[in-house]
Automatic annotation (TrEMBL):
Keyword Metal-binding: no
GO terms assigned for molecular function: oxidoreductase activity, acting on NAD(P)H
Protein name, as recorded: Enoyl reductase (ER) domain-containing protein
Residue ranges occupied by any Enoyl reductase (ER) domain in the UniProt entry: 14-342
Keyword Transmembrane: no
Region feature Disordered, mapped onto this chain: 1-28
Keyword field: Oxidoreductase
Gene3D superfamilies membership: Medium-chain alcohol dehydrogenases, catalytic domain (3.90.180.10), NAD(P)-binding Rossmann-like Domain (3.40.50.720)
Amino acid sequence: MASKHQAAILPQKGGPLSVGERTTPEPGPNEVLIQVKAVALNPVDYYQRDFGIPPVPVYPAVLGCDTSGIVAKLGSQVSGLALGSRVIALASSFFQHGSPDYGAFQQYVLAQADGVIPLPDNLSFEEGAVFPLAVMTALTAWTTVGVPLDTKYSPQDRQAVLIWGGASSVGSFAIQSAKSLGFTVYATASPKHHDYLKTLGAHAVFDYRAPDVVSQIVDAVKKDGVDLHIAHCVVNEALQPTLDVLKETKGNGVAKVAHSPILPPDHPTLDNTEITFNYPPMDPAKRDEHISQCFHGWLQGGLKSGSIVPSPGIQIEAGGLEGLNPALDKLRAGVSGIKIVVPI
Ligand SMILES: NC(=O)c1ccc[n+]([C@@H]2O[C@H](COP(=O)([O-])OP(=O)(O)OC[C@H]3O[C@@H](n4cnc5c(N)ncnc54)[C@H](OP(=O)(O)O)[C@@H]3O)[C@@H](O)[C@H]2O)c1
């Protein structure tokens, strides 16, 4: 008889999630079945629970993207992972036509092997869960603006980037990845996070609530003598000040902005500036290759060398699968410099 497990199921648009039983799936050739130990929460999880945005193709659905856990079964073509080993996994039904077998919020989940890597011994399951979607979004921003992930600028290249929203989950990995590619990193955040973001690799951090924040950044860039024509706008309603900075720093060249929140149709623009919604390739083969580069390349390498660390801070919420609704409500109410993680 097929095995069963508990899952936080979204029965219909508007939620709430409700804990129930599901049949445990078998992994396909390039898939891994993971016993979930911790999940991290992302804004898309409550958007889908509460508003059905982005569209949920199949109900009942299982939401969630970020997991860490233990390898329970391996597909026939998967190499480099051992049964019973600890892993970090991008587990999302997003690229699986909404199939609930692939959503993180359950005790056993399927994940594509491209997005599964070993969890280092020095990290807890809770720490491991913070990486997947935030790392992939931070790295996808680079390819969105035409910067390959194997870029290695040296200080003599004087290449700079602006990360608007550095204390967010995605922003913290935007900073870590920018540093690893060799950029001089300018970021915005509330003042209480400035020192921390410098430890992640920011060269200078600015209070986005300061009325003169744009001129502060422009002055610093000019004083440092670096070339700033690329930005990652990580948070909502930050495109205008991002463009205001680029207008003064890009010179006559083309500027490029990766925008992580959905771009409103009437968004601001700037001459000679490409503004692109930050999203992985639509072509499945190219997307798989990109995911593999993000996880098996950048993240696994960075964790091994110790140059990449869990970020931002972690707030653990209790209650397991039953605790997901109140934990998502807390995320929806707003967080500052923390990732909410729920042990399962
Ligand atoms: N395109 C994609 O595929 C994709 C994937 C994942 C996420 N996203 C989107 O990316 C965005 C970020 O997600 P997340 O999980 O990283 O968010 P998050 O961690 O929940 O963001 C919270 C942080 O946003 C910062 N913030 C809010 N308004 C700001 C502003 N005007 N200027 C600077 N910082 C501001 C706050 O900074 P302080 O604490 O410093 O005040 C806070 O720490 C969301 O819109 C999400 O939907 C898109």
